[in-house]
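Take a look at the protein record below and flag anything odd:
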Amino acid sequence: MHLPLAFISGSNLLWAGLLFGFVFGVLLHRGGVTDYNVIVKQFLFRDFTVLKVMFTAIVVGGVGLFILHGQELTNWHIKPATMLAVVLGAVLFGIGMVLYGYCPGTGVAAIGAGKLDALAGFLGMLVGGIAYAFSYDWIAANILPVADLGKKRLPDLVPLPEWAWYAGLVVLAAVVFRLVARFERRSLRA
């Protein structure tokens, strides 16, 4: 095991997860994405705060996992790439986010910030989770096998070095942030 991050192991790992989850919630709140109106404006292409915060979280999380894996502090636990389930889940997630006005993470952070409207949607998430649990056998038999690619990661599908995927993620984020900034400047002038 490499030394720089070796202290994050055993029971410290649980505390680190709790700490990072708390910090992530605080950052979501400070970033403004626990505000219903900010999320609605994202869908109306009037405010890109959500895109910026979430893309930043994806990049930091992806690069962080790459570093932790390189330090031998994590193992990959690859889930099967069941494409029909992913598409259906994405559609349901999108519909739920539009109706709820929050994604699950921002909804929980909004509850922590005292927003009662987020609590109603959270109860809906719990009901949805229970419904999924009760219907899982049917889903496993009828949906999960359709377009199942097996346990694959992008580096398994396209033979680029692992670091290239993470570097590409950082470059993609920089390009998206630049395009969003350009769009926002044009919107202000109009």
